[in-house]
Amino acid sequence: MLKRYFLNNKKRNFSTASIWIKGGSNMDSTGKKGINKILCSLLTRGCEGFNNFSLSEYIESYGAELNQEIFEDGISISIKSLNEHFTKLFPLLDLIINKPTLLEIEFQKVKKSSIDHIKKDKENAFNICFENWKRIVYLNHPYAFNTNGDANDISKITYEDVLLEFKNFKSRDKYLISNNVEINGVSIEKLEKKPLEEKSDPLNHNLNTTNRFDYINNDSNQTIIMMGNQTCSRRSREYFPLKVLESYLSYGMSAALFKLFREKHGITYDLGVYYPVRSGNAPFLIYLSVSNDQALFAFELLSTLWKNLLLNPLNNAEIFLAKEKLKGSFLIGNQSLDEILQRKIQLVSYDVPPISENDLNSKIEDISSLDIFKLTNKYFSKPFLSISGNKKICLEISNRWKKNF
Hints:
Blueprint: E1 2-6, E2 14-22, H1 35-43, H2 52-61, E3 65-70, E4 74-82, H3 86-89, H4 91-98, H5 104-121, H6 125-138, H7 151-156, H8 159-170, E5 174-178, E6 186-187, E7 213-217, E8 222-230, H9 239-250, H10 256-264, E9 268-274, E10 283-291, H11 295-311, H12 316-333, H13 337-349, H14 357-365, H15 369-380, E11 384-389, H16 391-404
Parallel strand pairs: 1-5, 1-6, 7-11
Antiparallel strand pairs: 2-4, 2-5, 3-4, 8-10, 8-11, 9-10
Helix pairs in contact: 1-5, 1-8, 9-12, 9-15, 11-15, 11-16
């Protein structure tokens, strides 16, 4: 079933429409990790009346864009063009979703491309460390796996498997949103504002010390450290307090991580917080990259920062600045219409009610330092650690990890 919405937005000279299909890589079955990525790519490679080349040529002839992307919880397909061409291009979305050609020759191309992409990802130590962190945090939960899939699984996926997956795909809930009111949808601003759920999903791991640490040996002069845990769903009331914490730690040059690792000690190549929007329990982790000779010192700094979060609530100045930066980030996120539509339709699929800017600011203002402190202790007292680096350094960090956590 396709539910249609439109967003009352100030007049622009272009129109865009985005479909969110509920269920992405989390729908991959055991032994077929990556099948929904293949299907996602295959959908836009031909539909009724168009083969791969004619579809691309038709879209490009109007200077339009067709994009597709797979996420853990859904598949996004969008089209954008100048207003005067939109009525000619908009029907393509229906054909792509309901009447794709799904040719076997295109399947073979997409399958090879998926395997190549995964191999390329494995050349990046950062990606390897992150995949390892997800594996120990989420175990066999769908979030433990790369949205692109597993190369061994993909090599065994057949054309018939993808056709069967498409049958499943057709039954999934679908949500369409556009800034063009001619799509005859419901105004998204008028949707009922339902309260968010109070509770989050059960944690999907066994809090055993031996399961909370892992490392990958690499021969470079770089050590990558990732530390954190799974937290809550976007539907939870805990989401915004954790966003304030993310802002405190990583937003701008006044962020706690920047001041500690870059300004005071100047020891990191890359650092930040990863806290994406998820329908289920979202990951929240601090990541950093340092040279091998600074790795042990960096870990001690991170451990001290982590313990301080568990022992001491943010003070008034810290929480005020974190809230202001968070509100500023929302304003930046509202500059792109594509981002606005994508975000809103994704949240609607999560059954998260739309919220005005005033309501959002009010919700953030109501968050107290104690709210954040309670969540910090709830989720981060038993963090998970993944390291990529020199074996000797990793083992020394492991010894210190066991003493500290």
